[in-house]
Amino acid sequence: xxxxxxxxxxxxxxxxxxxxxxxxxxxxxxxxxxxxxxxxxxxxxxxxxxxxxxxxxxxxxxxxxxxxxxxxxxxxxxxxxxxxxxxxxxxxxxxxxxxxxxxxxxxxxxxxxxxxxxxxxxxxxxxxxxxxxxxxxxxxxxxxxxxxxxxxxxxxxxxxxxxxxxxxxxxxxxxxxxxxxxxxxxxxxxxxxxxxxxxxxxxxxxxxxxxxxxxxxxxxxxxxxxxxxxxxxxxxxxxxxxxxx
Length: 245
Fold this sequence. Notes:
By secondary structure, this protein is mainly alpha-helical. 59% of the residues lie in helices and 4% in strands.
């Protein structure tokens, strides 16, 4: 089903200079994971050594969203999910290496490493951010214009699209892992800096890391439930803003 964007590139691609520093990325990832207490998400027969490796350009795994196996009919939401990663990568100026927008079991977007920490976070959370807004606006528009009475066919088509987007908006564990690792790396480098001002900025990064890392460490049920709650909150806020006018 819908799956995560792979945040890193292969060994043949030269990595750009990032705000993570000059050290090799593999060394940075290994030390940061150990210090932050992050573990590579899940296990899958398709991945090398049975472990999902979001550091490499490899096939994304299908184990994360087995909860949606019975919802494959909502394929439009899967396509929107991956398109969100693509659009966010384009906005952030991150090169897309390869992508697959739809497959019955797995879909993915692979990108080169971002040059800035929050670019990685933006691309990782793009489906949740874009999906919650677009699905909410579609639903609000459908029911406020009473389209079911004037054009029932268009109403049900757009309703199907809105529900598909909402159901497939939550990010995967690999997406959350990529965002948490990027924020964690930024936090550690700022914390260890000799510059007092840079060291103080680590206090600003830490809350973001804590929130994303806490989301990543949740069990699958709560991981998705929290995101659906976020979608409901976005829908409620947009409804309140639009109806207030």
